[in-house]
Amino acid sequence: xxxxxxxxxxxxxxxxxxxxxxxxxxxxxxxxxxxxxxxxxxxxxxxxxxxxxxxxxxxxxxxxxxxxxxxxxxxxxxxxxxxxxxxxxxxxxxxxxxxxxxxxxxxxxxxxxxxxxxxxxxxxxxxxxxxxxxxxxxxxxxxxxxxxxxxxxxxxxxxxxxxxxxxxxxxxxxxxxxxxxxxxxxxxxxxxxxxxxxxxxxxxxxxxxxxxxxxxxxxxxxxxxxxxxxxxxxx
Length: 235
What we know:
Elements: H1 11-29, E1 39-41, E2 44-46, E3 50-52, E4 55-62, E5 65-70, E6 73-78, H2 82-89, H3 109-131, E7 143-145, E8 150-155, E9 164-169, E10 179-184, E11 202-205, H4 206-211, H5 215-231
Antiparallel strand pairs: 1-2, 2-4, 3-4, 4-5, 5-6, 7-8, 8-9, 9-10, 10-11
Helix pairs in contact: 1-2, 1-3, 3-5
């Protein structure tokens, strides 16, 4: 994978704007109603394919654009406001009413591209990590959750205290930039491997991924090292 670029100054504002789009526009459009899990898609994030009224559909974000695919038809629209984005998706897909919001989202195209690249890196690392897991780890599906806007899976034996969330966050109240994380469910972790700020676990800062010659390898090793530590009780 190519080297990652540093976050531009507009990144945090764009991340927050796209988080709103995920929560208010994209996830509510998915069918069945209240199936909110999203996934990493080309250029960003979106719904899995779903069926509505006899049509195969997806709703996704590609960079700074909203994309609605219906059977073989694709509609693209620049992201401007929540209300305009929802109108592009279509009122019929929102049984609770069209999402509202007329303030300019202010999505920066370069920041949106960087977010998409981070999601792609995290999803690829999680896929490689999952391939190395055994049946005792019982890995979950990998989803992009609109509430926290992170892409993650769960793995490990809950009875043995080794189950944890493995994922990538684009940032939050404690982190202005993206980061990878491992969050054990019950294990009380300590030591150099477990350096997270704001939660019990480990994090790999975006700056470390930018500095890495091979960000994909660094991401995979981050997940695997914490999995080994949990499995070996080296916490």
